[in-house]
Structure formats: C-alpha cells, structure tokens
Amino acid sequence: MTQLVESTSKLSLGPIEGSIAGPIAGRMAGLGVDFPVMIAPMVGISHVAFRAMLGRYVPAGLKPIIFTEMLSTRRLPSERLDSTAELRCTEGEKSGVDWFVPQILGNEERFITPSIAKLNTLNPWGYDINMGCPATHILKHNWGVRLMGDPKYAADVVRMVRACTDRPVSVKMRGGSDKICDLNYLDEFTQALEEGGADWLTIHARTREQGHEGRADWNLVGEIARRRKLAVVANGDIQTSADALAILRDFGADGVMVARAATVRPWILWQIAEDLGYEQVPLGREGERAPRTLAEEGREFFRACLFLIDDLERYLGDHPEDALKKFSFFAATGARWFMFGHAFWAVTKKPKSLAHLRELISDYRDRFDHPLKARIS
Ligand SMILES: Cc1cc2nc3c(=O)[nH]c(=O)nc-3n(C[C@H](O)[C@H](O)[C@H](O)COP(=O)(O)O)c2cc1C
User: Fold this and answer.
1) Domain boundaries in the chain?
2) Mutate to test the pocket of ligand 1, among 37, 39, 42, 67 (most ligand atoms within 8 A of CB)
3) What is the DSSP string of 270-289?
4) Model pTM score
5) If you take atom 19 of ligand 1, which residue's CA is the nearest one?
6) What DSSP designation does 371 have?
7) How far apart are CA 273 and CA 191, in angstroms?
8) Residue-by-residue DSSP string for 90-116
9) Residue 18 DSSP one-character state
C-alpha cells in the first residue's frame, strides 16, 4: 500500500476529493486518464453497436476506456476496415472524443506490425495484448494465456507492439495460468512486461481453470499494483458500483474493468461516476440520477435493449442476421441477472428482423416486470 500511496499521492480521482472514504488515486492519471473505469473486451459483445450503447450512459465529459473484442493479427492485415464488422467504429471513436482500445491476439512481428498500422487509421486511444484467453484454438498458436507461460517471450510481444505505436500499450492477463494465482510468478511476469514497455496492465484475477466462474482475487491485483511502477487495473467479478469503489479504495488497484455486468447494467459507468462524486449526467438525462433500485434497473434494461437495437441498425444494419445474433448473445449474457432470464433470452431468438426484435422487446417490457439481481454467483 505504501508504495502506491507514495507514488500517487498528488493525483486525485474524481472531482470532489474528500467526498469519498479516502483519496482514491490512480497511476492511470499519468496516462491522462481521470476516470479509470474500463469496459472489457468480450468476443461477440464488444462490437461497435455495444460500445455506442454504452456511450449513451457515460456522463458528459468523462472518458471511460472501452475495449473492442479480441482481434486476430493473423487476419487483420487482409481485412477491410469498411466491410469487417469487428473493425467498425463510431464517429466519436474515430475523432478521438470517445476512447476505445483494440485488443489484439498474436505473437509474431510480421503480423503485429501491419495489424497495428491498419488499426492506427482508426485512431484508438491505445492497444491491448490478450494474454488471458484460454480457448483451445487460441492456445494452439501460443496466443492468449499461453503467453503467460514465458515472461521473456511475453515481454518480446510487448516490445513488438511498443515499436509500432506511441499510444499506450497494455496487457490483459489472468491471475494465474495454473490452479492457483501464484503471486511470485505474477510478480516476475508483470515485471517482465513492465520492462518490455507496457504502460499498464489488467489482471483478471481468476486462474485459467476458473474460467469466468467463482470469486476473483482482488487482493492479488492490489499486491501486484504495490510491486509495480506501472498502473494495474482489476478485472473479474465486478458486478456493482460498490464492487468497483471497494477495489479502488480498499484493494489498491489503479482502475477497474467491468465485463459481463456491463451487459446487464451498462449504466454502471454512470453509477460509478456518481459514487465518485461526479455531478455530470449522460446527455439527454439531465435532472436524473443513475438507476439504483433493482426495479429501476430492471426497467432501464429494456431501454438499453432498445438503444442497442438502434445502434445495431445504425452500425451493423447491413448484416441483419449477424446483428440479431449479436443481440441474442448480449441478452444471453445479461439474462443471468434476471429472475426469469431464460424466458427473456428465448424471446430474442425469435425475430427475423431488427424491427421485429424491437416490437418483441417493447411488448415484453410492457407485459413483465423484471427486477434484476444485484449479484450472481
Ligand atoms: C462472452 C465473453 C467474451 C470474452 N472475450 C474476451 C476477449 O475477447 N478478450 C479478453 O481479454 N477477455 C475476454 N473475455 C473475458 C472478459 O474480458 C473478462 O476478463 C471476464 O469476463 C471476467 O470479468 P467479469 O467477471 O466481470 O465478467 C470474455 C468474456 C466473455 C464472457
């Protein structure tokens, strides 16, 4: 703790210092990030329409960092920016007003260099390297969590990306690649990444074997943050604004990254901002407070669904079948927080067009109450 407080004591997080339980300071401020709240990369979910929908819940003037889904550096060099759905961006992202970070998968310079050159034209805030994905088809290329097996190799991959860009470079990794989160190994591994030129790290504090289940070890993230000079962000099991604040205040991480909970409460960005003392609200929500009670959140969820359908139409309307699948996957992920989530998800599988989906969602909203659960296990 001492090292973190010493190295950041002059930086404040949130505009109203003292209105929260203690100074929350983060080394992300050294990278120009005042609001160190991120939304994680999620394949099939973190597409342009989802990012646009999240943007509707960002209080004016704040800049959370929103990730793309992971992008293969083997495919990127031959992909077209205009026709590849995964590479589409909002106008706000392209102009640099909204911050997004493409996450890349890869380990070879001959693919990484042209991939970054292509992504640079989209004007991202930074780049992230995936060192946490445990999927078998990823592991066979020695990508994802496999990179955690060799600190020197992993640091070389950071160097390859670092050499291609002046923008912040980060790595997202797991808390452990074996059955336990091993602090000593993580210490050695993160030190190698720091020496390789990474600007910040995210630790999904679960082991590879845990997948996405069970409690994440937020203490471990704080411990690594205390040992490193670079900023360390916590990910895993952050389901509520209270979780995010606890991590920032009590566990000593430099930032928080929300993943699945953003599919059920995309306004978590607004809630966190409010809880940090920011007074701004999202555009068009003047005079309102972020939804708080489980009933308020249940109602807001349907509004968010309709926003997402609008954004799917706008950005992916030329691939309607794909857009419908993306919506259904979003609903499947978030439905776990609903009492009767399965019934809702089943509805999202029926429509043949986005217009029909909009009708079904509106009808469902009018007929059923759907209070959320605050947390799922
Ligand atoms: C559907 C899905 C897709 C994911 N895709 C990615 C990905 O592309 N890159 C990545 O680093 N992590 C990916 N993850 C992991 C999340 O970013 C995050 O680390 C994980 O869900 C833990 O956070 P949570 O407990 O808040 O959900 C994915 C997770 C889910 C559920």
Assistant:
1) 2-275, 294-367
2) 42
3) HHHHHHTT----BTT-TT--
4) 0.93
5) 204
6) P
7) 31
8) -HHHHTTSS-EEEEEE---HHHHHHHH
9) T
Among 89, 133, 181, 305, the active-site one is: 133
Describe the crossing of helices 354-367 and 341-348 by its angle, rounded to 10 degrees: 150
- What would the pLDDT profile of 255-281 be if each residue is shown by its tens digit? 999 999 999 999 999 999 999 999 999
pLDDT of residue 7: 30
CA distance 204 to 171: 11
pLDDT at 362 over 70: yes
Q: ∠ at Cα 143 (141, 147), nearest 5°?
A: 125
Going by pLDDT thresholds of 50, 70 and 90, the confidence category of residue 36 is very high
Distance (Å) of CA 344 to CA 17, 279, 356: 42, 34, 15
Q: Answer whether residue 365 shows pLDDT above 60.
A: yes
| Residue nearest to ligand 1 atom 6, measured at CA | 42
pLDDT at 360 over 90: yes
Pocket test for ligand 1, best of 50, 67, 204 (most atoms within 8 A of CB): 204
Q: Which residues pair with 176 in a beta bridge?
A: 207
| Residues across the chain | 377
Q: Which residues contact 117 (CB under 8 A, 6 or more apart)?
A: 164
- Please report, rounded to a whole number, the percentage of residues in the chain having pLDDT higher than 70: 92
Is 181 a catalytic site residue? no
The residue type found at 46 is S
Could you tell me the two tokens for 118? Answer: 């292509």
* CATH 3.20.20.70 correct for 2-275: yes
Q: List pLDDT tens digits, range 61-86.
A: 999 999 999 999 999 999 998 889 99
The count of other CB atoms within 10 Å of the CB of residue 296 is 15
Of residues 48, 41, 260, 213, the one with CA closest to residue 133: 41
